[in-house]
Amino acid sequence: MGKITDDDRKRMARCCCKQCGGPLKMKVVVYDPYGGHDVEMFCENCQKIEYGTEKEIYSLAERFIDNYQYNYFMDMAEDENSERLNTAKLCEIIGWVFSELGLMGDEGVIKNKIPKFEQ
Questions:
Q1: Whole-angstrom Cα distance, residue 20 to residue 110?
Q2: In this structure, are strands 48-49 and 24-32 parallel, antiparallel, or unpaired?
Q3: DSSP assignment of 79-100, as one string?
Q4: pTM for this structure?
């Protein structure tokens, strides 16, 4: 079975679920009845294995959706599930932008750095 590392503990403390914003916990996940299992980050609220996103990124995604009525999944009915999926998608986009601008590090969002805009 996998071990819970210090990096995992730090990530769980500073990150949240991309879909609901809930806390992440370590959980033993059984993949098959013949011994396939491991310890994974897990969202109890969504009942999903979840690597999570930085809390600052989740907050930005929620605000963006509220201010601009962002909807990535136009073919889905607008309900709680589509809102969660939109939030998760926007978290991925914002996380990518932050990484490209050099605003993400091993400890999460770097708040006191000027972004780099060159290619």
A1: 23
A2: unpaired
A3: SHHHHHHHHHHHHHHHHHHHHH
A4: 0.85
